[in-house]
Write the structure tokens for this entry.
Amino acid sequence: MPRERTAYKELRKAKTRHARNIAVVSELKTLAKNFERLISDKKTEEAGKALPQLVSKIDRAASKGIIKDNTASRKISRLTRKLSGAVKA
């Protein structure tokens, strides 16, 4: 256990940040899953509207350090590729 008061405060801050990070990652997973469902249901128009919102959330999470930049780029690339493939088909 920490000895200093500041160390206790850092523990509290870490808990808060951890909870917020988990919430953001969970939201990203949910949005991605909904996007995948729209693509599998052949609702490309709705998926096209959902993609910019999802990309924005992913970019924001990457800028805040919740996920890494390369991970964000990879996810965005794969989602965009899936949408363009579904539109072509």
Notes: The longest helix spans residues 5-40. The two ends are 59 Å apart (CA to CA). The helical segments are 5-40, 44-63, 69-88. The chain has one domain: 5-88.
